[in-house]
Amino acid sequence: MTEPFFILIAVIGTALAFDFTNGFHDTANAMATTIATGALRPRAAVALSAVLNLVGAFLSIEVALTVSNKVVDIQGPDGTPIAALMGTPILTVVFAGLVGAILWNLVTWLFGLPSSSSHALFGGLIGATVAALGTEGVKWEGVLESVVLPAVAAPVVAGFVAAVGTALIYRIAARVPESRRNDGFRWGQIGSASLVSLAHGTNDAQKTMGVITLALIAYGSWTDTAAVPFWVKAACAVAIGLGTYTGGWRIIRTLGKGLVEIAPPQGMAAEAASAAIILSSSHLGMALSTTHVATGSILGTGLGRRGAEVRWGVAGRMVLAWIITIPASAAVGAICWLVAHSIGGALGVGMMLAVLVGASTWMFLHSRKTRVSHDNVNEVWVDDVIQRVQTAVHSELGGDLLDADRPIVDTPENRAHARPPHARPPH
Length: 427
What we know:
By secondary structure, the chain is mainly alpha-helical. The chain has two domains: about 5-370, no CATH class; about 385-420, no CATH class. Helix content is about 70%, strand content about 0%.
């Protein structure tokens, strides 16, 4: 096995692993509100989302053909890699960027924060490119136009559309008995959530397709810059579908229960707004963050419904995660490239691959200490005030203080220590 071929295999495997994390990280974007309102059972919801993500991945390649060329200067105008970077150099840059994206996805999943997988990928690629080529290797104008501005505009636009939609829905259905209204909108939620899942597949799976196709071109086994190999489409579709089916329950819980108390009409408004914006951006080849869109939509439904509770503390933590996503993943991507490059070739890439596997395994095992699953994803949300009380109890009992910063699942044991007398009883 030659050195470039080994690195190519590492890039493809790491890219599919990123696609898998993208799937379970972003399941909440489509199904959090549907699960929270009881429109679908948790397992049925993620199964439906997985199938539609898989189907959506085959519908378009507009995003796949532009994703990497928007932010880093490692390709010519036609998408062909720069001649001096062909082979090992560009493969190492892409590999390092993927490592940064995966680790950031896992960290934010561990803390239950819905951050952007797209921005994690962009950040990882930017960091690795800066480490390899310097700041001139980044298309800063493209970063501003394709990443920063959409990151600001997407949640605002989605929130506005969802708020207007929620207000109209409640006005139109004001005279309908609440039980009939909720039952009807639960059925509507299933349809709108399905559209979001389909849209997610058309947008997010393509990002991984683009990265793998770039790697194949750099290695010299693919030459068509206007197409994606069918096996790449199929592999990416399956990877994101499998990731979606695993659930990503920690983030589903945050979006479904932690941000706004969602009723079925709100859920349908949020999902319809998200689907419309994501599908239109995919058609235009814009690598939009589905997380930002979905979160903005859910917040908008809280603003559009009179008397709805919006937990701004939770929203603030999400925004903070959004702000540091690109710098954090860029830092990891840069470090990964520097280590791999200093060691050299296949050995350097192999060592960083081992670090990625080790860090991922540690985070998975650590997550088991405060497990969130389909069984408890809809338990009553534990507020910040209760969280501080519970933190003190954990400290006295020798608990893990790292758990204090995470959304805590309401269980009988935790409730006995943490729930003050005036708190709402669990259902």
